[in-house]
Design brief:
The protein is built from twelve helices and twelve strands. The structure holds adenosine-5'-triphosphate, iron/sulfur cluster (SF4) and magnesium ion. Iron/sulfur cluster binds next to loops.
Length: 330
């Protein structure tokens, strides 16, 4: 359904007059730096990485909130950069985004009805009754009872979980085929997170949605996603089926992320990969492996050139010249 082909988003860095005179050069923050990815129909892909790895930027490129610097995004074989007029409008209906902060995404001066009906109005869906039915259906599908007291309420009257459900209703009211959810549960209480995750899973089943689920938390992603993509400094470090990535993670960075997940059962043991320090700046990336400055397994060969993504098992790709093959759990 979706193909990303060598996608890049580089933001130019403004320099002071003095430094540009002393050392004239063009510097860029390489937020997304050569991503190749595919997403199948009805697939849920988890996109995981630490803060600043480029997850949100990648999500915004996919929904065309901003254009890529280079590379292609193909939706059902069509390059979305070429879309104009009606085709672009139709793309905007098909692809939606759910944001992290349900407090900020809803207009506080709109009632719940006005918030959810707005996309229908913008896309020219006619008929007050038809619109009302679609709003009620979207709210119902999102696990809310669309009675008058909800429809006429303002967002401040709702709990965080209810507001996120309204944001989801707003995203699905146009019946999109692809949704990018950017950390949709990270601002919610732990007790209501699982309800939202179950809802997203039900929407995939009932509406046939494809979903890119962005998170910095591997423990959340593993319950929802078919595949997991681990992003580090603008590029994929590891991609594979969820079970494979959780049980047989090969990239040291993935193993470090797994080691940070709290364990419920004290008898279950796992290998711990400790990493320290901050990632290097994405403005001046090292010539070799991007993870080398933090990797406990680094060798001189790692600095010779950036490793390619290599298929280590069916559909499981790793960007490391010394992939860890021992089991994560024992
Ligand atoms: N508009 C912008 N201009 C310049 N740099 C930007 C811009 N947007 C993002 N960046 C930079 O791009 C990099 C990736 O940012 P992004 O927000 O995509 O990361 P993220 O993985 O979503 O992080 P988080 O987990 O904190 O949300 C960061 O270094 C960020 O500072
Ligand atoms: S290529 Fe080398 S530095 Fe990079 S992750 Fe693998 S072992 Fe670590
Ligand atoms: Mg983000």
């Amino acid at each position: 359904m979706l193909v990303l082909d060598n996608l890049k988003k580089w933001y130019p860095v403004r320099q002071s007059l003095v430094s540009s005179l002393l050392k004239p050069q063009s510097l860029f923050v390489k937020a997304v730096d050569g991503v190749d990815l595919t997403l199948k129909k009805r697939e849920i892909l988890g996109l995981v990485g630490e803060s600043g790895s480029g997850k949100s930027t990648l999500g915004e490129l996919v929904v065309l909130l901003q254009p890529p610097s280079t590379g292609k995004i193909l939706l059902d074989g069509v390059d979305i950069a070429s879309l104009r007029g009606n085709e672009l409008t139709s793309f905007r209906k098909r692809v939606q985004m759910i944001f992290q902060d349900p407090y900020a995404t809803l207009n506080q001066r709109f009632t719940i009805y006005q918030s959810v009906v707005e996309p229908l109005v913008i896309h020219g869906i006619r008929g007050e009754e038809a619109r009302r039915q679609r709003v009620c259906l979207a709210l119902e599908r999102s696990g809310l009872n669309p009675d008058d007291s909800l429809l006429n309420a303002f967002p401040h009257r709702l709990s965080g979980g209810q507001r996120q459900r309204v944001s989801i209703a707003r995203a699905i009211v146009l019946e999109p085929g692809l949704v990018v959810a950017d950390e949709p549960v990270s601002m919610l209480d732990v007790s209501i997170r699982s309800g939202i995750l179950n809802l997203l899973s039900d929407l995939r089943r009932d509406l046939g949605l494809s979903l890119i689920f962005i998170s910095h938390d591997l423990s959340t992603v593993q319950y929802l996603c078919d595949r997991i993509a681990i992003m580090y400094l603008g590029r994929m470090a590891e991609i594979g089926p969820t079970k494979q990535v959780i049980n047989q993670a090969c990239h040291p960075y993935t193993r470090a992320l797994l080691g940070a997940v709290p364990m419920v059962d004290p008898d279950v043991k796992r290998e711990r990969t400790e990493i320290e320090s901050e990632p290097p700046s994405s403005i001046r990336l090292p010539p070799g492996c991007r993870f080398a400055s933090r990797c406990p397994f680094v060798t001189p060969e790692c600095n010779a050139g950036e490793p390619e993504l290599v298929e280590i098992a069916p559909d499981h790709f790793v960007r490391c010249i010394h992939p860890r093959l021992e089991p994560v759990w024992y």
